[in-house]
């Protein structure tokens, strides 16, 4: 199989692999004692202050993205709308996670997961609208937002069918981290922009590892927990997404001057790389 054939089929292959692995794994549930975070230190009347306050960068990145979108004609309306929804969801992540960490329990964690899932769905929709010729009847954004909300509903322990199953929620995140970069590669998105998306994926992977090593990180550093750092790295990932979008925004004048070239091939300097 040559590289061109592999690149063409890689996104679909990744989707099938994710489905196969998660199906093979069986139901995945929230770990026992998940809500017992390592850093329980309060700041005055604010409980678990570090985990609560470390959500503020999400609010900052969300506002940064919304203020920087503008009305560039080099982004198609579906892509622009999906990016707006993404940055709104990132800002709401700060609110939902703040609310959850004030009193972590099964009821509140839904409001922590929901904006994260919606952000993943919106960002995935932006990539699909730009890099895929396939489009569902309603468009990718409504479709993926519904799937994202459904994936969070499946994590609810009150459901009779597969109660508390995290697989759909994880599949959405894995799809964004693995399939989306492959779609961008297949579409020929400039490396100067793809590397920023890969940096975002790297930050999110580190964030997930820090979440697992919550207590170990606090024991090691004696000052900050893994979960607190998870918030900071996840927000950094969203910032890298904003940087990738910012390059596209700055490429607009060059794109308009060189009409006929696909937007995905332009960098901040107006040339492909």
TrEMBL record:
Keyword vocabulary terms for this entry: Membrane, Transmembrane, Transmembrane helix
Query: Could you confirm whether the keyword Transmembrane appears in this record?
Result: yes
Q: Show which residues constitute the signal peptide.
A: none
Domain of life of the organism encoding this protein: Bacteria
**Which ranges does the record mark as transmembrane?**
49-69, 81-102, 108-128, 140-162
Q: Does the keyword Transmembrane apply?
A: yes
Q: This protein is called what?
A: Alkaline phytoceramidase
Q: Which organism is it from?
A: Niveibacterium microcysteis
